[in-house]
Design goal:
The protein is of the alpha+beta class and about 425 residues long. The protein has helices at about 1-15, 15-45, 75-80, 125-130, 140-145, 155-160, 250-260, 280-285, 285-320, 320-330, 335-370, 395-420; strands at about 55-65, 90-95, 100-105, 110-120, 135-140, 150-155, 170-175, 190-200, 215-220, 235-245, 260-265, 270-275, 375, 380-385. Helix 11 runs antiparallel to helix 12 (about 395-420). The relative contact order is 0.17.
């Protein structure tokens, strides 16, 4: 019976080709736009979901005496916290702000090739424990005990060394002096780094480096903020606490307040506090507002497409009143006609809706290939706008259910009207 209903649906589509094509194209374009908006919204709403310890991580913050929060913390604050253990926190880590750096990289042929604007994030040895990056090659333990260690991301390692050559042990020579470099460092750099490990790529949707494609991490960096002599009077990065199991950021915050924990910076006593991981990003960034606006726009576009399709179905079924009258005369019950119309509606909506979704995936892939390596200037930083779009099984299931529900609703009301004629 179901097969008969589906055949009837496609026969009707072929009977009125032009009218049906216009309406179905409108639905497919609506689904296409909705899919792109859904992708953008989910990208933002899933910030930091890639971290296994997300629920156990807390932001470490610093507030001025006037109650204003600093954008980051000084690097030596984390070391001070390690020397003041509390029951709520298992460990702490400091993550420097991502900055572009330029290097001459030793290639398998023994040559040194220049690579500019490699986004580098300085971390300490506890980063591995807190954020658990997946090690692909090499050893984090070795990197944490070696001066000027470099951990490449898989994509950069593949770009420089290919798939067959191991980057472990290769050298990278800096070609510029950093603002945190010692006075003995030449303006042309010349500081040698050694690649000790390769990790999986860090997703773009993390509060550590939102929309920044991190190329590499550095540990025990002689040129970085962690070893900078004046790092106490600069907010060079972000601080995080790894909570003990069953502990919460609220409990750590209460502990800091009970201890009246302070940190001196700029000759002022500043309050040390804790907050849920990612809360500061969500409060300061415009990304959540963008996600909300994108979701609303996507829903409005989808609703417009469905309303257009609803109008098309209503007119179509009213034009088929003669056919339905013959079916009734031959003994068809109103429920069977209602079921026929709804199955047709769901079939058409799902089939051509998936065409729109496939087109949406194609558009995001095109964005990746066309713009994935291009940067947009956002004032204080540059960000890659599209990179590695993915559609997981959860999105596919949600989209399928949405199409089935939309098709049922789009067909039910016109069907009731058609049956009543």
């Amino acid at each position: 019976m179901l097969q008969h209903y589906i055949k009837t649906a496609f026969r009707h589509l072929l009977k009125y080709k032009t009218q049906n094509l216009i309406s179905i194209l409108g639905l497919s374009v609506g689904i296409l736009c909705f899919s792109i908006c859904l992708y953008c919204s989910r990208f933002i709403y899933s910030v930091d979901q890639c971290f296994t310890n997300k629920e156990r991580i807390a932001n470490v913050n610093l507030y001025t005496p006037d109650g204003d929060i600093y954008s980051g913390i000084p690097a030596n604050l984390i070391e001070s916290l390690r020397q003041t253990p509390v029951d709520e926190a298992e460990d702490y880590t400091f993550v420097g702000y991502p900055r572009p750096r330029s290097y001459n990289v030793e290639t398998p042929e023994g040559k040194e090739l220049p690579y500019e604007d490699l986004y580098t994030m300085e971390v300490d040895s506890s980063y591995n424990k807190v954020f658990t990056p997946q090690i692909v090659q090499g050893s984090w333990e070795t990197a944490s005990h070696t001066p000027n260690s470099v951990i490449l991301t898989r994509s950069l390692a593949r770009k420089i060394f290919g798939n067959d050559e191991s980057p472990i042990g290769k050298r990278m020579i800096s070609t510029q002096r950093l603002s945190t470099s010692p006075s003995t460092t030449p303006r042309t750099g010349g500081i040698s780094y050694t690649i000790q490990a390769v990790i999986e790529d860090i997703p773009l949707n993390t509060s550590l480096s939102f929309l920044h494609q991190i190329d590499m991490l550095t540990l025990n960096d002689s040129e970085g903020v962690l070893q900078f002599e004046s790092n106490n009077n600069m907010t060079g990065g972000l601080g995080f606490a790894l909570l003990r199991p069953s502990k919460t950021p609220t409990q750590l915050e209460a502990r800091f307040r009970a201890m009246n924990l302070k940190h001196t910076m700029f000759k002022k006593e500043n309050d040390v506090t804790a907050s849920p991981f990612g809360k500061n990003f969500l409060e300061k960034s415009i990304a959540p507002y963008f996600a909300g606006i994108t979701s609303v726009i996507g829903l409005l576009i989808l609703l417009t497409g469905l309303l257009n399709f609803f109008q098309f179905l209503t007119g179509s079924y009213l034009n088929r009143s003669h056919e339905f009258g013959i079916r009734k005369a031959l003994g068809a019950k109103p429920f069977s006609i209602l079921r026929l119309i709804i199955v047709e509606s769901v079939t058409i909506t799902t089939f051509f809706g998936y065409i729109g979704m496939v087109a949406g995936i194609g558009v995001t892939e095109w964005m990746n290939s066309a713009f994935g390596t291009q940067t947009a200037d956002a004032g204080m930083f540059q960000a890659r706008m599209f990179s590695d779009p993915t559609v997981d099984i959860g999105i596919a299931i949600q989209a399928t259910l949405t199409l089935i529900v939309a098709g049922t609703l789009a067909g039910f009301f016109p069907a009731k009207k058609a049956v009543s004629i």
